[in-house]
Amino acid sequence: MYYAAAEPANILGKHGIAYRKSRDLKHWGARSMAFVDATSTTPWAEHSFIRFPQLLQRDGAAYLLAGPLHNNNLSRYHCLHIFRSDDPFAFSADAWFKRIFVDAGGKVLQDGPRLYVSTSSTLGLSQGVWLAPLHWRAPSR
Q1: What CA–CA distance (Å, rounded) separates 104 from 123?
Q2: Within 10 A of 32 (CB to CB), how many other CB atoms are there?
Q3: How far apart are CA 106 and CA 100, in angstroms?
Q4: Which helix (H) or strand (E) holds 97?
Q5: Roughly how many angstroms between the first and final C-alpha of the chain, as a whole number?
Q6: What is the DSSP letter of 105?
Q7: What distances in angstroms separate CA 77 from CA 83, 90, 102, 129, one per listed residue?
Q8: What does the alpha-carbon distance between residue 125 and residue 137 come to, in Å, rounded to a whole number?
Q9: Distance CA 100, CA 103 (A)
Q10: In this predicted model, what pLDDT tens digit does every residue of 11-67 receive, in sequence order?
Q11: Can you give the pTM of this predicted structure?
């Protein structure tokens, strides 16, 4: 399970994405960090600016989608950053390679080989949930 958190886990912690592992969804392992935004400065551990984490695994690589970054309130609900790693439990800011603009923390959904991205307006402007095809092209190494 991936979720927004602070590191260290207190009001002065840096914003990031934590994870816990479980074999049965009843008993959970210790909290670990998959990503820490070293540039975050706002002491709001209970309201991390980086959120909406989602992990995708494609072509032997792990991709962490989360956003926004760097205390950027301008894109608070509109931007997902995509990080690439060979390890699904370790991402760095250097692994950032793409961002997509979606509304209200859009999620990537998979239907067989096809991918879609969801969006819905936090202001009620979109009048519902929308799905759009997501064309995924892995970066060259």
Answers
A1: 9
A2: 13
A3: 9
A4: strand 96-101
A5: 28
A6: S
A7: 18, 24, 8, 15
A8: 30
A9: 10
A10: 778 888 999 999 999 999 999 999 988 777 665 545 556 777 889 888 889 999 887
A11: 0.79
